[in-house]
Task: inverse folding
């Protein structure tokens, strides 16, 4: 899979367009086949160079063997994507969780520092040059171990994208996760470089094939219009005003009981609204409302709002702010902001225009918002916020039964009351049989 | 399904099979003897009829309840049913027509929003109940085609009579509905099926095409039919029967 390419002698041969292949750069070595021979051949090439070019090359004591990434053993703290796609991309949640991706790098000597650079340029070439292009340093190990060194890379360091950093960033704050606004994210390439004198001595390149790697922190745009229909223990959300967007994978609805988070900074958020008492609410994932919701709302700067801060005459905050209507006000849902964790109440695929929520409590008013969600699970901004209250409903069978209708219980059930064969049924059956018997006797005759 | 019905149906099916088996042996003899009396024909043999059926459907559910529930819930708007019927014409009555056994299937569905139980909802009710009815029936069919065959009158009156067995189920917008007693809203109803109608022989409109269809496709006759259909499922069960007209196309093969 890998290729050994002379650097800087044969840099031009480094074809980075072959995404998916790991490309390895080794200083002073010509392109060779078997990896075992690389050291010998590199030494031979170096000897030739020293003869041809003078004594400068001789200053290097040994040729650097290219580091080798073991792709099969890359690990990350956050769980992998369930869809097995974009396994090594960085999502907003990964960033908030300060995920760490650990790269196992095979080395043959530990005389040089090992650096990890990311970017969308040829960082192996640029390392040490005046213009390092769109590359930034994310990790460095001064004394790597042989034969393998595990290099942890903080995803926040990747997301921070500090082109001027001379050392790997440390303790990057969570606020960096809010910086990137490109809904399509950025595809990146990882470079594992053995550094020598501020330049690249040898390197390995990883793009993760067609799946790629990079970061995408922003979800797709929300629907332009939603409506809420009433159901029993559920709400039906109509989705309208949907703009074309390649990044959208599904829609997700968020249901927050009215009043949740209001004047309750010390009361535990959603718990104060009595979520625990809602039958079936657990199924909608609302049980975890309290702490998660508070954390998420902080992250999205939609902090708790006290009731007395609302304008009673207007029924709540001004609609232009994107706040939930007064009838179902909660500071946790606000149009144009990220949805809170723990209040998801249903999903629908990208083409659906009706989303039915999971189990909600009858008689309780909920603030409802919808956001788009991409492949990485990034939730986009919330739509406008609407109110909805599930109520107890009578279906046709309930009405029929209450008015004396009988039957039901299953296709194979026995009748619940006394019941005999209907005379007409027997008569028709008898007639049919008689006709056939008559026909049979006539045929025989 | 009541056990008495099941026993009856089983008995009927057995008798039917016995009769059909013996009738099959003599069909060719009948056809031969009948052919001697009929004008010469260059048509292929005729053994079956296929009907593609469509028509309104108004179940008689309210006949078995103390107060209207169907009309109250679904309204009196017209609902439609589509179906299919396959007849085996096992005997040709000389100078009269064909006697056959028909097996039919139909399906209809009606939906309406559920009703708020006690309070006025603060928005439109989006959860609907749907009543699904799928009748099956086994009927004897007598088609009088002597007018079309012998007198150039392209009309075939017919009658059907037999048993019907209907599956029905109610979905409350989430899944199968259940009532206050926890009884699932799905069951079967058994009753009778009858129909009278007439078929217009389409072959007369394009006789050469009809002959080609017979020669190449084995379709003896094509009809546009119109019938009055009656099904009844009265008794201690949901009466999902309906009296309504049905129209469609029929093909004798």
Result:
């Amino acid at each position: 899979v890998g290729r050994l390419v002379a650097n800087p002698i044969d840099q031009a041969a480094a074809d980075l367009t072959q995404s998916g292949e790991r490309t390895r750069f080794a200083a002073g070595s010509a392109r060779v086949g078997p990896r075992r021979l690389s050291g010998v051949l590199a030494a031979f090439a170096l000897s030739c160079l020293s003869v041809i070019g003078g004594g400068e090359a001789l200053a290097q004591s040994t040729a650097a063997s290219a580091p080798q990434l073991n792709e099969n053993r890359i690990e990350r703290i956050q769980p992998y994507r369930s869809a097995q796609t974009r396994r090594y991309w960085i999502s907003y949640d990964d960033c908030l969780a300060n995920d760490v991706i650990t790269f196992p790098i095979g080395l043959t000597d530990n005389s040089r520092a090992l650096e990890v650079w990311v970017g969308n340029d040829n960082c192996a070439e640029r390392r040490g040059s005046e213009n390092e292009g769109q590359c930034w340093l994310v990790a460095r190990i001064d004394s790597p171990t042989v034969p393998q060194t595990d290099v942890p890379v903080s995803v926040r360091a990747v997301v921070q994208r500090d082109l001027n950093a001379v050392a790997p960033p440390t303790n990057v704050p969570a606020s960096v996760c809010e910086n990137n606004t490109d809904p399509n994210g950025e595809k990146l390439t990882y470079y594992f470089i053995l550094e020598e004198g501020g330049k690249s001595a040898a390197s390995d390149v990883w793009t993760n094939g067609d799946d790629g790697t990079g970061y995408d922190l922003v979800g797709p745009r929300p629907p332009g219009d939603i409506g809420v229909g009433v159901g029993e223990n559920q709400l039906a959300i109509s989705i309208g005003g949907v703009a074309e967007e390649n990044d959208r994978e599904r829609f997700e609805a968020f249901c927050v009981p009215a009043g949740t988070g209001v004047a309750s900074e010390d009361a535990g958020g959603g718990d104060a609204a009595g979520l625990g008492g809602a039958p079936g609410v657990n199924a909608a994932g609302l049980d975890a409302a309290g702490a998660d919701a508070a954390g998420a709302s902080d992250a999205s700067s939609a902090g708790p709002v006290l009731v007395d801060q609302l304008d009673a005459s207007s029924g709540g905050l001004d609609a232009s702010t994107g706040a939930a209507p007064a009838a179902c006000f909660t500071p946790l849902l606000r149009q144009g902001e990220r949805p809170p964790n723990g209040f998801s109440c249903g999903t629908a695929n990208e083409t659906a225009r009706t989303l039915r929520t999971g189990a909600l409590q009858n008689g309780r008013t909920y603030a409802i918002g919808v956001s788009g969600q991409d492949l990485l699970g990034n939730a986009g901004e919330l739509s406008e916020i609407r109110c909805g209250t599930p109520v107890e409903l009578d279906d046709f069978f309930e009405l029929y039964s209450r008015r004396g209708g009988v039957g039901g219980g299953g296709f194979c059930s026995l009748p619940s009351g006394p019941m005999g064969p209907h005379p007409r049924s027997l008569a028709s059956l008898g007639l049919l049989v008689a006709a056939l018997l008559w026909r049979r006797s006539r045929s025989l005759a | 399904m009541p056990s008495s019905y099941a026993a009856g149906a089983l008995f009927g099916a057995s008798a039917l099979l016995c009769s059909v088996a013996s009738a099959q042996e003599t069909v060719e003899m009948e056809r031969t003897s009948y052919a001697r009396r009929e004008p010469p024909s260059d048509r292929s043999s005729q053994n079956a009829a296929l009907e593609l059926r469509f028509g309104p459907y108004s179940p008689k559910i309210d006949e078995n309840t103390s107060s209207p529930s169907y009309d109250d819930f679904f309204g009196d708007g017209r609902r439609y049913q589509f179906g299919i019927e396959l007849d085996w014409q096992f005997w040709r009555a000389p100078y009269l027509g064909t006697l056959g056994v028909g097996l039919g299937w139909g399906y209809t569905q009606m939906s309406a929003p559920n009703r708020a139980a006690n309070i006025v909802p603060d928005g439109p009710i989006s959860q609907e109940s749907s009543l699904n009815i799928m009748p099956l029936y086994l009927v004897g069919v007598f088609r009088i085609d002597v007018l079309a065959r012998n007198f150039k009158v392209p009309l075939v009156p017919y009658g059907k009579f037999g048993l019907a067995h209907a599956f029905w189920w109610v979905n409350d917008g989430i899944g199968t509905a259940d009532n206050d007693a926890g009884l699932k809203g799905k069951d079967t109803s058994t009753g009778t099926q009858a129909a009278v109608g007439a078929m217009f022989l389409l072959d007369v409109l394009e006789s050469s095409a009809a002959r080609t269809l017979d020669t190449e496709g084995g379709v003896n006759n094509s009809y546009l039919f119109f019938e009055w259909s009656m099904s009844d499922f009265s008794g201690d069960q949901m009466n999902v029967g309906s009296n309504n007209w049905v129209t469609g196309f029929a093909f004798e093969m």
Observations:
- The first strand of chain B starts at residue 48 and ends at 56.
